[in-house]
Protein 1
Amino acid sequence: MFSMHHSNSSSHGPGPGLGSAPFTLLSNQSQGMAAVAAVSKRGNLTSEGSAGGPFVAGLSMTLGIVFNIVALVILANAYTHHRRRSKATFLLFASSLVMTDFAGHVIPGTLVLRLYLCRGAPAPLSPPDRLCQFLGGSMVFFGLCPLFLGCAMAVERCLGVTRPLLHASLVTTTRTKLCLSSIWLLALCVALLPCFRLGAYTYQFPGTWCFIKVLEDTRQADVAFVLLFSGLGLASLSIALVCNTVSGVTLVLARLRKKSSTHRSAKSHDIEMVVQLVGIMVTSCICWSPLLIFGLMSVTHSYSSSTGEDLETYKMLMVMGVRLASWNQILDPWVYILLRRAVLRKICLMTTRRTDLRGSTFRRWEVSSLRSSEKKAANKI
C-alpha cells in the first residue's frame, strides 16, 4: 500500500523534493519489511515441512528395509514348503508385493535422503532436473504397483473362494507371472507419461521430494495425469474392497453351514489369505487414499482458479499425504508377519490358557475354601 501511495504522490506531487523523501523512505522500508516477512514465513514452513530431517528419513528407511526383509523370508519359506496351487499363487503375489515395497522404499528413500544431506531443502520452485524426474517417476511407479497387486490378489482370492473349479482351470503359475509382468509394465507406462509431455514432475514443498505438478501453473496435461494416477489408485482400492467383501461373506456363510472336516481344513487356508488381504486393503486405504484425494483436490483447485492464500494449505496437505503413503511399505510387511495362522494360533492358545488358568485357579480356590470351611465346622463340633 505504501508503494502504491508513493507512485501516486510522485505523479501528482511537486517532484523529488523534500516533500517526497519521507514517502520514498517509507516505501523502501515497507518493501524491506514485506520481503523479510515473506522470507521468514517461507523459512518457517520449510522447517515445519522438513521436521526431523535426515534422521527421520533414515530411521523410516531402516525400519522399512528390516520389516520387508523379514516378511520376504517368511513368504519365501512358506512358498517353498507349500504345495497347494491356490496357496502358492497367493504367496507368489504376496512375495512380489513385498519385493516391490522393498524396492519402493529403498530407491525413493535413498533419493530423498540425498536431497536432505546434499542440498537440504531447495526452493520448491526450482526447475526439475534429472534427479527430480527419476524420483517423481519412482514415486508414481512404486505407488501404483502395490495398489494394482493388492487388487489382483483380491480378485484371485475372490475367484478361488466363489468359483474354485474355474479358479483351478484358469489360474496357473505361468499366467500369474504374466499378470505380474503386466502390472509392472502398466505402472511403468503411467510413470513414463511425462517423457511424452503428458504431465510433468516438479519439486514439491519443502523441496525434498518430487511428484506430479499439482500446484502453480498447472495445465490440462497435468490435470489429466493426476486424474489418471488417482483414478487408477482409487479404482484399485474399490475393486479390492468389493472382492474382499464377497470373499469374506462367502467364507463366513461356509463356516456357518458346518461343512465336513476336509472342507474345514481347506477353508482355513482361504480364511488366512482373506484376512491378510483385508489387512493389506485397510493399510493401503489408510496410507494412500489421502495422497490420491489431496492430489485431486490440489490440481483441480489450482487449474480452476488461483490458489492464493490456500496455497500453503494445499502444500501441507500434500506433505501429509506423502508421509502417510511412505508408511505403506513399512506397515505392509507386518500383515504377513502377524496375520499368519501360526501366530494367530499361538495368540489364541495364550488367551485360552490364561482363561483356563484363571478358571482352574478359581476352581482350586473354591475347593480349598470349601475344605477349610468344612474342617473349621468339624473342629467346632
Note: The domain at 54-356 is CATH 1.20.1070.10 (Rhopdopsin 7-helix transmembrane proteins).
Protein 2
Amino acid sequence: MAALHPSQPLYNNGPSSASGPSLLKDVSSNSFSGHSSGLHALHDVTLSASASSTNLFGGTASSASLAPAGPGQGQDTRHDGVVGAQESGLPPKTLKIDDFVRIRTLGTGTFARVVLVRHHHPRTEEEARQVYALKILRKAAVIKLKQIDHVRHERQILQDVSGHPFITNMLASFHDHDFLYILLDYVPGGELFSYLRKFRRFDEPTARFYAAEIVLVLEYLHEQQDGVAYRDLKPENLLLDEAGHVKLVDFGFAKRLGRDGAGGAVETYTLCGTPEYIAPEVIQNMGHTTAVDWWALGILIYEFLTGYPPFWHQNPLEIYRQILETPVVFAQDPSISSAAQDIVHQLCTVDRSRRLGNINGGAAKIKAHPFFDGVDWDALLERRDQGPIVPPVRFAGDAQCFDIYPENDVDYEQYTQELAEQYDSCFTNF
C-alpha cells in the first residue's frame, strides 16, 4: 500500500543531503504539526478521495498473479496464475485493469496512486458489493527514481505475509504497458494518524492496544519471516479496519534481511525511513538490522501518548542531530506512567545491542514488559474484541474516513518504447 499522509519518507545514500520543507498539520499544543518530508517519497501514497476518472487507466494487462491465501507461507501455489481467486471473490482469470471500475482516489504519492475499485462485470450480488484498494505504480517513475528492486521486494513480501490479521492483504498483482498494479483488501477506517490528530493524543489503554498489535506484527515479520525489516513504522502507515484493528500498509521500504552464517541478523546500509522515526544506526550509516523497527515502536508509543514525536524540527538534519545527541525526555504534562516511560526508553536505546526487542528473547521480552500487563496476546491475535476506536464505517465501500485528493496526475514520465525495451524484463513476473 503506502504512506498515508502527505509527509514524504526519506530515501538516499546518506543524511548529509537530506532537505525539504515540512508539511504542517495541527496535531498538538506544542506546535508539532506533521512529520517532516525527506528527499522524495519512495512509496508515500496518501489515502484520500474524489470523483471518478479513468485517464490513469489504459493498456492491456500482460500478466497477473494472485497471492496465496495463507499467511506468510512464502510459496507460490498458483495454478495457471489464479489460485486464491475464488476465496477473494476475484474472477478466475488473468486480471487486467478493465476488470475494475474506479470509484475514487484513495491516495497519491511520488510515483503511485491508490484507488478504490469494484468489479466491472460482477457475476453475483456479493461481487457487486465487493470493493478493493488498487495501488497503481508508474513504471517510468519507478525506473527514474531507481526503485525497481524496492517495488519488487514490496510485492514479494506482501505476497509472503498476506493473511496476517494486522497486515494489509495482497490479493493479486499484474501490469500493463505503463503501470504496475497491486490489488489489496480495502481497509475502510482510515489512517491512525487522523484519529491521533483528532484526539490530540491517546490515553494509555488505547496506546497500549495499538502498540500491542504492532508488536505482534513486528514479531511475525522479524522472527517468522526470516528477518523482514519494515523500516517505515509511523501512524500514517497504520490503517484501521471496520472493527478498529490495525492494518500495517506500505511495504515499500521493507526488506528481508535473513541471517548470516553465525546466526546473526544480516545488516543493510540503505538510508530510508521518515526522519522522526529513523534509528541512530541508520543515520550513522553503521549498517542496520530489524532493530530499527523496535526503535521506531518506541517513537510511536511516545507519539501516541503525547501527540508528537520526541525529535522534531522543520529541518531533517536537525532531527538527525537530536536523535544522535539528545535522549528521549517526557514533559510533565501530560502525565505518563513510569511503565510507559520505561518501555519507550528501553526501545529508544541508541546502543542496539541493549535495545529491547533486539536482545535475547526478542519480542517476548517486550510482551513481558509491565507496560503490557493485562494484555491477552492470544485474544488480541484472534481479534476477539473491537478496538478502542471503531471507525464510522457505514457500508463496505464507505470512504468517508479518507481525505480528498486530486484525481488526475498533472505531469508524469512516459514509458517510452526505449524504456520498454530496456526494462520490460524487470517487470515480467510482477
Note: Residues 204-224 form the longest helix (21 residues).
Protein 3
Amino acid sequence: MWGPSHFCLTLCLWACLDALPVAVDKTKVSPPVEDLEHPESVDTGLHYDRYLREVIDFLEKDPHFREKLHNTDMDDIKQGKLAKELDFVSHHVRTKLDELKRQEVNRLRTLIKVKQDMNGEKGMTVDHQALLKQFEHLNHMNPYTFEVEDLDRLIKSATNDLENFDKERHEDFKRYEMTKEHERREHLKTLDEEERKKEEEHYEEMKKKHADHPKINHPGSQDQLKKVWEEADGLDPSEFDPKTFFKLHDTNGDGYFDEQELEALFTKELEKVYDPTHEEDDMMEMEEERLRMREHVMNEVDTNRDRLVSLDEFIIATNRKEFLEPDGWETLEQNPMYTEEELREFEQHLAREEQELNLRSSELLKQREELERQQEQLNAQKMELQQAVEHMGRLKTQKIEPPGQAKVPSAVEILPGDSQPLSQGHQQDLPAHS
C-alpha cells in the first residue's frame, strides 16, 4: 500500500523524475519527461483509492498542470495552492474529471443503499445529500462537476487519511493481539484442571521458543545494512559503500527510498525471528515489527518529514554515531502492545457488544415470528376468499340463485301435500268445467 504521504508524492512525481539514480551521468542520459513511464500505482487502502488514482492520472496528462508540479513543493500542495491551477487545465481533462466525480457520487450512493439494506432499512426513503456529508473527499453539494474545491478536498482528505494510516494499523494490530489473548483465556475456561495445565505449559514453551532467536541489528544501522549488502546483494561487507547501497535498493530509480523500499531492507532481520513454518511465530506480528522498524528509520533519517529518504539524508545518517554504534533493538515480545487493564477494558467492550448483538438478535427473532403470524393470517384470508369465489362460480354455473332470494309460491299454486281448501273468493274465480 501507499505510505502516508504517497498521495503528495504521486502529485510531485513528475517534478522529481529527473532525480536519476546515483552514479548516472545526467549529461549523457536526459530523456524527455513525456517519454518516461508513470510508475505503477498501488492500492492506498483508502475506500476512494480508485477515484483518487484516476483523478491524478488525468491531471498529469494536462501540460499546464504538470508544469506547475515542477514549481510546487509538498507544503504548498497540502495547503491547497495547487488545486487552484485546476481552472487552467484543458477542457478535455475537466470533462473527464466531471465524469469521474459523477461516477464516484453514484458509487457512494450505492454504498449508502447497500448499508441501509444490511441494517434492515430496506425500502425507507434515503436523504443522499445528508449522508454524502460523511465523505469529505468531494463536494457533495455539487455532484455533477469537478471543481477547485473537489481537488482541494481530495488532496487534504487523502493526506490526512494516509497520515493516520500507520496509527490505524497499530490499533488494528493491538486489537488483534488482545483478541487472540482473550480467546486463549476463554478456551482455558472450557478445560479441566489437567488439560488447562498442559495448555498453559505449551503456551509458555512456545513463547520461550519464539524469544530464542539471534540478535536483531538496529534498523538502519551500519550492521543491519551490511547484512543486506552481504546476504541479499552478495557483496563483500568490508567494501560497503552507502552511495552504491542506496542505488542498489532504490528499486524504482527515483532518487528516494520510499516506505516500501525501506521495509524491504528489514526482511533479513525479520527472518531471524519469524518463520511461517513455525507454530510459535505469528506472521501478523512480523508485519507489525516491520512497520515499527520503518517508522523508526523514518524518524531518525527523514529530516524534512516528507516521508521519503533522499540520498543526501541517507548519506548524512550514515555519518552519525548512531549509525556506527547503535543501541540494541527491542522486539515486540520485549514491548507488549497492551496492559492488563487495557485487556480488561477490551473484554468488557466485547461483552457489551455481545449483549447488544444478543438483544438485537432477540428483537429480530420476535419480528420474524410476528411477520410469520401475519403471513399465516393473510394466507387464511386468501384461502377463504378463494373458496367464496369458487362457490359463487359453482352457483352461477348451475343457474341457481343465491340463498336469501328463494322464489315465493304464487296464490294459484297448490303445493304437493297441501290439503287446505281454497277460500270462497278464490273458488269463485276458478273457471267452470263442462
Note: The chain has three domains: 6-163, 165-338, 343-391.
Protein 4
Amino acid sequence: MAGAEFGFELRVCAWAERHWEPADPDSRVLVARQLGTRRRRWDTVIVEADPAGLSARAAFGADELDADLLDVVRHAPADWTYYRDALPDPGYPWRYVREAIHRASARGVLDERKRANRIEIRRVAPYPDWVRRVVAVENKPDLDASAARALAAQLERDVALGLADEVWVATRADATRALVTEMPNAAGVLTVGAGDDAADDATDEGRDPEAGERDALAVDVAWHPRTLDPDATGVRVTDRGDPTAFEYVDPAEKRETRARLAERAYGRGWRAYADTMRPDCRAFDLRAAEEGDVPYCHAKGREQTAAECSGSCPDFSPEPPGWRQRGWPIEGGPGKTVKRLLDRRRRRRRPGLDERDGDA
C-alpha cells in the first residue's frame, strides 16, 4: 500500500463503502472524506441512512444543500405561503433568507412566486429525515507512541462532544500497539493491512476500472468503540490548559450540525478529489487498488497526493487539443472521462437520482 496518507484514506473510504456493517442491517451507507465543522475535520465520515428517506432525498438533486438552503427547504410549506409566515425567524436580516429562496428556486428544490408584491414559497417535496447514524474515522497509517498521544487528545474531544455516534481510528496493523495503549477506550481502532499493491493496467477511456477483480483490503477491528449519544448535551473543550475550559453544546445544535454534515456527505462523497486535482494532465491516471481506484502519476511513477497534483506541478502537461475534442458534441479527453466515471460511481450510492433527472 502506498505510504501517503492520501492513498491510505482513499482505500479506507472504498473499503467502508463496500463492507461497512451498519447498526440497522437495512441501512444504506454513504461515505465521504474531509468533512467537519469549523473546529474539527474528519478524514472519513460514514452516514448510515434510512433507505426510503435516502431515496426521497433525491428529489432535491445530486448537489448538497448548504445551511441556508437546508433551512428554507426543510420548512417550506405544502401550499403557497408568504415566506415570512412559512419560515421561522432566522435571527438575522430577512434579505439573506430571500437570497436563499432565490437560489433554491433556481436549483429547482423550491417553488417560488410573487403575488401582490409578496414572495410566496411552496415545497417541491417534503425533506426527509434520512440520517440514522454518523460515524467518524480518523485515518493515521503511520503512528508511533508520541503521535498516538497527540491523536488521543483530539479523540477525547470528539467523544466528549458526541457529535458522531461512533469515533474510530484506522491505522496500519503494525501501529496497533501504540494506538490501543494511548487511545480513549470509547474510540474504536481499525487495523488495515495491505492487499496486492501491484497496480493494474491503466484505465482506458470508457472502461470502468472497478468492473474487474481486485484484492480485498484486510481490515480488522482491534478495539470496539463505545456508542455515543448525539441526542445528549455535549461538551466542547475550548482550552486544554489548567484548568480545562469547556462549554456545553445543546442537542439541537448537534442535530443541526449532523444534518449539515450529512448533506455535504451526500453531495461530495469520497471521490471528489478529481475536482481539485488535474485529471486533464497527460500523466494522470486511475489505477485499481484494494477495493477501489486511486490516482496515479506516470511522471512521478507513483501515487501522487492531492496537494502535489495541481497546475503548478513541474510535471504538469495538459492534454493536447485533439484528446479534448473526442466525442460529440465535445465530450473531452481522458480527464473528462475520469470525472464522469467517478461521478457515475458516486451516484450509484444515491438511489432515485437517475429517475429524477435521467442522467446515467
Note: The chain has three domains: 5-53+129-268, 77-123, 272-357.
